[in-house]
Each structure stands twice: as C-alpha cells, then as structure tokens.
Amino acid sequence: MNRLLWPRSLSGALIGLQVLAPKPQTGSETNTQQRKLQVRVRRLHSVCLSHTQMDAQPYFPVQAGVGMEENFLSLDDILLSHERLPVRIECTFPRLGFLERSSDTQDIVEGTKMELPLWLSKGLYEKKRRVLSVELPKVYREGWRTVFNADPNVVDLHKRGPYYYSLGSQMLHFESPENPDIAQTLLQTFIGRFRRTMDSSQNAYNEDTSALVERLDSLEKGLFKSGQSGLNGFQSWEKGQAGQLTASSLVLNYRKRKMADGPH
Q1: Could you tell me which residue, 72 or 214, shows the higher pLDDT?
Q2: Rounded distance, CA 107 to CA 96, Å?
C-alpha cells in the first residue's frame, strides 16, 4: 500500500499504541501505572480522533474528549455519554424507585442491579463513599477479550457497541483489577483491525463500502473516511484536478433546492 495515501499522523498513532500496553506492577506501583495508562489512552485517542474531521463538514466539527475527559459540545461525546452501564446500588436511594421500571417499591434498595447511562454512573461513582459499583459490559469481560485477542477482525464492533474504544477508555474511570487487561485488549484490537481498515479504504475507490463500514466502530469509521479522502485527493492530483476550485457542498445543495422549487 502506498504510504503517501495514509493520513500523516497515523504512523505516529501506532507508535503511541505500542507504549500503551501496561507492564505488570505490584504493590504501591499499581495505582501509578493505571494513571499513566489513562494518560496514554487519552493521548492515543486525541491523535486518532483528529483524523476523523479532515473532510469538509456542513458544520464546525468539535473534537470529542478522550479518556476520562468529555467535551459536551461534541456530538460523539453526547451519544457516548448515554451508553448504558450495568451497575449495582450499594446504598438505598429514597423515593427514586420510579427510575427502575421493574421495581414496584418507592425506593431503590441496596443491592439492586440496574442500568444507568455513563454520565450518571460517573457522577454517582465515588471511591471513598460507595454509592454504586459499576460492572463491566459483556464486550469488555474475559470471554470477549479472548475472542478479540484471537482474531479481532471477525467481530462486528458496531453491533457490539458503536463506541467500543471510547467506552473502553471511559471504563478506566472506574476502579477494577481488570483495567490493565481491558487496556491491553483495546490496544491489540486496534492494532489488529487498523491495517485491514486502512487497506480497505485505499482499495475501494468508487466502490460500495457500506457492508464493510457498518461493521466498524465510530473511531474506525472516521479513520476509514480519512483514508478514502486521502485516496480521492491523490486520484484528483494524478488527473491534474488538484488545483481546480470546486463549489462547496452547501452551495451545490442550495442550488439544487432552488431548482427544485422552481421560479417564484
């Protein structure tokens, strides 16, 4: 594959991926290692997500937050924050029984298992005062981690969760002994699927890619789109069209609407 067609910083993203993998630590070094791991995840996603906004947009794109950070001006972050997590209530919530549809009591009693959106789970989660504990979604548990480590390309990531990488990074916000394993799986899954995603974007010129794209995570879709944008730009350059001025898609759509409306 022609390296010139790749988005320029994607090779840098792979370098960041290589340092993401956690090394086993013991004793007091565990918390320090987890903090370093979260920083690495944030840096990785900031590099990758920057390439999802390379094409012209009808609106000003706002970059999504990464890791434990969130940007609520970003449409992707708004959608991500509403992903539901399985939680266990560790203390009684008085007069909030209406939040649990299957409950016929006025309160949410201790030990109740339910699902809450990510934004609410993060708001209620405290390390010192156990209000609730967050359980791992199935796709991040050991069974699915084994599948991803065996061959990540066979998994329909969009079906398992359209924000697989972003939500996995957010799960590091909650203390869990499985956090290093989750980060390692995110790393290996991204590496294992990255080359195939970019190769497909470079070899699908003017072809229907809907069947391929619908299996990708939102981050991978952005990378795929960036790869195709680079390919289209290269093809235009070969044809001598790179220096030509073209009308904005907004202008073209406006003209089409005026023609459809007809003369007044």
Answers
A1: 214
A2: 5
Closest CA to 48 of 74, 21, 16: 16
Q: What is the pLDDT of residues 13-36, one digit of tens each?
A: 444 444 444 444 555 556 666 666
Distances in Å between the Cα of 109 and the Cα atoms of 2, 103, 106, 134, 213 are 60, 10, 9, 16, 43
Q: For residue 108, what are the β-bridge partners? A: 93
In DSSP terms, which residues pair with 85 in a beta bridge? 116
Q: Which domains does the chain have, with CATH numbers?
A: 3-83+137-261 (1.20.58.2050)
Show Cβ contacts of residue 34 under 8 Å, excluding neighbours closer than 6 positions: 22, 172, 179, 180
Is this model's pTM higher than 0.70 or not?
A: no
* C-alpha span between 99 and 18 (Å, rounded): 43
Q: How many other CB atoms are found less than 10 A from the CB of residue 54?
A: 16
- Residue 54: pLDDT band (50, 70, 90) is very low
- Cα 208 from Cα 229, distance rounded (Å): 15
